[in-house]
Amino acid sequence: MSHTVLVCDDAIFMRTMISDILTQAGFEVVGEAETGVQAVEKFRQLKPDLVTMDIVMPDMGGIDAVREICRESPDAKILMCSAMGQQALVVEAIQAGAKDFVVKPFQPSRVLEAVQRVLG
Amino acid sequence: MDLNKYAALFLAESREHLTTCNRLLLDWEREPGSTEAVAGLFRAIHSLKGMAATMGYGRLADLAHRTEHLLDAVRAGRAPAGAGVVDLLLKAIDALERGVDEAAAGADGGFDPGDLPAALEAAAAAAAPTPAKGAVRKGKKAAEPPAPVSAAAPLPMPDFGEEAGRVVRVEIRPDAPLLGARAHLALRRAEQLGKVTGVMPPAANFDVQGFDGRFTFRLDAPVGESQIIAAIEAAGEIASVAVDADTVQTAEWRIPSAAVPAAAAPSARSGQIRVDRRRLDALMSQVGELVVARNRLLELAQLDPGGELEALGARISRLVSDLQAEIIEARMTPVWQVFDRFPRAVRDLARHLGKQIRFEMEGEGIELDRAILDELGDPLLHLLRNAVDHGLEPPDERQRHGKPPEGRLVLSAAREHSSVAIRIQDDGRGIDRRAILAKAKREGVVGPEVEILTDDLLLKVLGRPGFSTAERVSSVSGRGVGIDVVLTKVRAHGGAVEIASTPGQGTTFTLRLPLTLAILRVLTARVGTERYLLPLSYVAETVEFDVQPRTDVKGREAIVLRERVIPIVHLRALLGVDGGEVPPRRPGLVLEVGDRRSAVVVDSLMGQQEVVVEPFDAPKGTAPLFSGATILADGTPALILDAAALV
After folding, report:
1. Does A99 score more than 90 pLDDT?
2. A42: Cα within 13 Å, side-chain hemisphere
């Protein structure tokens, strides 16, 4: 069975792109969220194998969402999607429990490598 | 043997032990069944006795001996920690503290413990069971009777031995994005294997400019070399991992920086020496000068791209960054070194006022620049006292309001971005805004039109020098003096204070402080013909101001960013600048201080750099907008804007 993924990003563009990269590699994108609150709710509901999480989102940012998800499910596998220049935030996300990160603009190979590491 | 050499060491270490004792006694009082607390107390007093005896401080050693004897009796008899015994031991600790200070000042002969020795003796006799001759104690073998004090006891010098673990060297692929974050990931993988210590450069500096992806640490883990390598490589983007054999690094000449619990055995401090803080200050200020010189060098190097000067400049730049990171790390001190004295103070005060308070501390391992930490003790104590005296209600009043009789007071420290937030949180009655508002109106602090005191306004009112929050003057917190002192101290270090208070539910003060003083990463902005600097740690993002949709909130101009309304601050207007050219498209810097944000509009951005902060005495009449000043690489002075004053 293929791995299930929840894609969290406030931009449809980014969600689509990430979903495409992952779907083509054989993953099953089971849900999308555009706010941190939604991310937490959908995680509870869908229990995906993997979450990709944008950092800056309205209505609870990605880092708080990571914190919230990891509080309930410490083994959650969360991959942060960051922009250059967000190093401090990425570090904060890692400390909150995120397992890895990729940096925009995305290169599919890097995204998939990171996904493998997270699921590994 | 020249004992003078050890006097400073004796003083520092004895004080540490006594602080530990205070804490352990309170633990023990809360949990009378705890054998750990008694064991820790016994160890600490025993060490003190040995040190005092070695130093020739006979009276002090004698008092320590008697204290130890009582502890041993309690331990052996497993007598519960009666309030009487705890109080007596607290008195003994106080006397020992006095004795240590006097002995260090060269006056051990004059140290007078009063009737304490007799009281300790009597208590020891009462606590100890009187076993029949030859009776064998249950369990482990009988505790050794305390050794008589002798000046020939061995000198318990700190052990300069090795720290446990293997040295691991990691190099992240230089082309990997966000090297610092990747390094953090690698470190986390290592932490899952065992205990990680001595990270170099310190993890707090992974995200500084100049970090080249190479770092080392010591890992104490019961796994093989190949497992360590595999685990770290799994963090991704790793160029190389090397695990050294169980070699010992040369002694690390640095002050303790790891969050070693105070009760830990002396071996936990191994490989460390104490360094006078003034030396570190001097080093820091010299490195500061070096940073300025380096910045100038890099500017000159740009005139000759590809030349030898550029290569040399880059190399020197990296070396200076490393040096700076090392010194900053050497100055970092865990907050417990200041927090440790608070439980005792809170307990004594609560008793004095007849209140029941559960005092908790969190995040004691969080580190701050020693220079900042040292200045925090008094403001924090003040806020804690305020909470105990005015915030938390007496038990009967709490019960009348349906609360548990025991009030809760929490002092916590947490890392947030590149700052540290220290919170003092009580679940007391909260601040009476109406009373304060009325008073503020009477004193003309706020206009008659103000109807509600927001948290921000509340802080402004409370922070006015001499503004009294107390309904009555008490012997404990005085006339409510102090919030202004707290504000001044914290702001002087580039920090900010926030307050949140809900009637009936309690009050929280948050002190936000930079990790380190002296060197600051800033964004340089042009306004008119002047350059102003903004601490980068508060800049959440930059936006193109003139293309953002604008709106209006309560008469204030604001932009809407991702559905969030952010008030605009025009620096030109605020600073009264009208020279220079206003470009058609200006950048807006979104500042974030705690929950508050603002978009600061400047004429243009000129880049990031590191600057050495010089204290800044604003001339009278200057708007309170600046937190410091600096000299830029080209020799011109520039002012550093206070982010907290702009949001």
Report:
1. yes
2. 24
Check CB contact under 8 Å for B180 and A91: yes
User: In chain A, positions 93-112, which contact chain B (CB-CB < 8 Å)?
Assistant: 94-95, 100-101, 103
Whether B177 has its CB under 8 Å from any CB of chain A: the answer is yes
Between chains, do A58 and B185 touch, taking CB under 8 Å as contact? no
Is the separation of the CB atoms in A64 and A36 below 8 Å?
yes
Q: Which residues of A touch B177 (CB under 8 A)?
A: 84, 103
Nearest to B163 by CA among B200, B127, B138: B200
Q: How close does chain A come to B206, measured CA to CA in Å? A: 9
Q: How many CB pairs under 8 A join A and B?
A: 51
Domains and CATH numbers, chain A: 4-119 (3.40.50.2300)
Distance of alpha carbon A59 from the chain centroid: 16
What's residue A48's pLDDT? 96
- Which chain B residues are closer than 8 Å to A58 by Cβ? 562-564
CA distance A7 to A102: 13
- Give the pLDDT band of residue B254 (cuts 50, 70, 90): very low
* Architecture of the domain spanning B336-514: 2-Layer Sandwich (3.30)
What per-residue confidence (pLDDT) applies to B265? 36
Q: CATH classification of B277-331, choosing from 3.30.420, 1.25.40, 3.80.10, 1.10.287?
A: 1.10.287
- Note the ipTM here: 0.91
Is pLDDT at B247 greater than 50 in this prediction?
no
Residue B334: closest CA among B280, B258, B393, B274: B258
A49-87 pLDDT tens trace: 999 999 877 788 899 999 999 999 999 999 999 876 678
Whether residues B181 and A58 touch (CB distance < 8 A) is answered with: no
CB contact under 8 A, A101 and B562: no
Return the structure tokens found at B400.
């009348």
Q: What is the mean pLDDT of chain B?
A: 77
- Domain B166-251 sits in CATH at 3.30.70.1110
Alpha-carbon span A32 to A7, nearest angstrom:
5
The highest-confidence range among A33-37, B195-199, B585-589, by mean pLDDT, is A33-37
Regarding pTM above 0.80, the answer is no
For B519-646, the fitting CATH number among 2.40.50.180, 3.90.1150.10, 1.10.4080.10, 3.90.640.10 is 2.40.50.180
The domain segmentation of chain B, as residue ranges, is: 4-127, 166-251, 277-331, 336-514, 519-646
A114 touching B, CB under 8 A?
Answer: yes
Whether the predicted pLDDT of B382 surpasses 90: no
Give the C-alpha separation, B127 to B643, whole Å. 59
CATH of domain B4-127: 1.20.120.160
A91: chain B residues, CB-CB within 8 Å: 180-181, 184, 206-207
Confidence of residue B96 (pLDDT cuts 50, 70, 90): very high
The per-residue DSSP string of B242-269 comes to EE--S--PPPP-----S---TTS-GGGG
Q: Is the pLDDT reported for residue B610 higher than 70? A: yes
